[in-house]
Design brief:
Elements: H1 2-14, H2 21-32, E1 38-39, H3 40-50, H4 56-68, E2 72-76, E3 82-86, E4 96-100, E5 106-109, H5 115-125, E6 135-138, H6 141-155
Parallel strand pairs: 4-6
Antiparallel strand pairs: 1-3, 2-3, 4-5
Helix pairs in contact: 2-3, 3-4
The protein binds zinc ion (3 copies).
């Protein structure tokens, strides 16, 4: 985690920003919750647990700065809430999401998988792809398991 913070610090420096203690507190929360997709309010509540002096506006500005510097990506799963998602280091494109319509769980696919699609789009539309957002909506394996178990129980 420390080396990751160091690299983010360098990213900020190369854009002439400092990793102030407030910014660092926000970055730490994002790293500690890398699996999650936190809203600005979620991040703020977690930052506040350790650093009660930091306000929502500061956290919000930090998140916007980190978005600008491509440390995080801002995403929306259709519920009107902007969420902040750490970008995988060295990944050319943003990862994909599987959103469960039953339980709301969000899983990530880190493999790009879109190589062939990207080639077709670039060729047929003469379009240079820089990034993409891909969210699948469906029913996750946990919910499948639950409904399988329920069917089993109903049979008995
Ligand atoms: Zn994600
Ligand atoms: Zn891609
Ligand atoms: Zn589910």
């Amino acid at each position: 985690m420390e080396s990751r913070i160091d690299r983010i610090k360098k990213q900020l420096h190369s854009a002439s920003y400092k990793l102030t203690p407030q910014r660092e507190a926000t970055v730490r929360v994002l790293l500690e919750h890398e699996e999650d997709h936190l809203s600005a309010e979620d991040v703020y509540l977690l930052v506040k647990e350790k650093s009660p002096e930091i306000g929502l506006a500061t956290v919000y500005r930090t998140l916007e700065l980190l978005t600008e510097l491509k440390v995080v990506d801002k995403i929306n799963f259709g519920d009107g809430v902007s969420r902040y998602d750490l970008r995988q280091e060295g990944a050319a494109h943003f990862h994909h999401h599987l959103v469960c319509i039953e339980c709301g769980a969000v899983d990530e696919i880190q493999d790009d998988l879109l190589g062939d699609v990207e080639k077709i789009v670039e060729r047929d539309w003469n379009f240079k792809i820089k990034d993409h957002r891909l969210t699948f909506h469906g029913i996750c394996w946990r919910c499948h398991k639950k409904s399988d178990e329920k069917t089993e129980n109903d049979k008995q």
